[in-house]
Specification:
Radius of gyration: 18 Å
Number of helices: 8
Largest sheet: 7 strands, mixed
Domain CN hydrolase: 5-251
Keywords: Hydrolase
CATH architecture: 4-Layer Sandwich
Strand content: 25-35%
Number of strands: 15
Shape: globular
GO molecular function, one term: hydrolase activity, acting on carbon-nitrogen (but not peptide) bonds, in linear amides
Order of helices and strands: EHEEHEEEHEEHHEHEEEEHEEH
InterPro entries: Aliph_Amidase/BUP, C-N_Hydrolase, C-N_Hydrolase_sf
Length: 270
Amino acid sequence: MKDTIRVALIQPKPYPEFDDPRHIAHAMRLLEACRGEELDVICFPEYFPYVGEEELARAARDLGSYIIAGLLEVDGNRAYNTATLFDRQGRLLGRQRKTNLGALERDHLGMSPGDGSFRAFATDFGKIGLPVCIDFWGQPEAARQLTDQGAEIIFNISIFPILRGHWITGALTRAFDNFLAVVGVNTADYNAKIAGRRYHQHGGGSFVIQPPKLLDKGEFNRWFRSLDSIQDWVSFQLDDLEQVHIAEVYLAGVRRYRRDFWKRFGFQRQ
């Protein structure tokens, strides 16, 4: 497995309505910025591009990258807000349904909640989790389930009308508790239209959080003894404009030192 992976955070400015059919063409244009970058994962935000599985599957195969997208899933008479994962061959690897739905999602978008179970997906570089928005940063259960399944990195697709500042604080807490890397992807700042009413989506702020790069046990011990803050786990945080940002995430440290980290704090984990 790779020690370091390359990821693209795509922070788009959507059209006002979530189900606007132009979103998939917009997504395809943004994916062109990823061509030739030899990426492991490309990640879109929550509810974007909403539909377009066939196009995204072709793009994953064409770019040779895993793609995560915020897509609508319809199962019988129920609709779900999902993080949907395609592998490098363009195959649908799986979906993660959002469990904790806001009032707008329930009452105006007609979404049904997931069942509260979270699945770690195996990739060629390790296991990943895909909890959607508040499922990750708002409550501890998703991160705990995923870590217990061996997830080393979380991709937290989100969209924020409120609490944008709390997002990264909550994500840092989950990263610390579970010694995880986290990639958070939001939309750019824009005005959404839901049930005929406009809502300002305070976008931007997509980020990468990761424990520091520690090369051996001695360096880990020195780092731990001097640990005073985890603010430096935030590798970067984007502004509120549309953009594609490419970053490297170091996973080897998560694999090597997670249990040492827990043991030092007395965390009782599996």
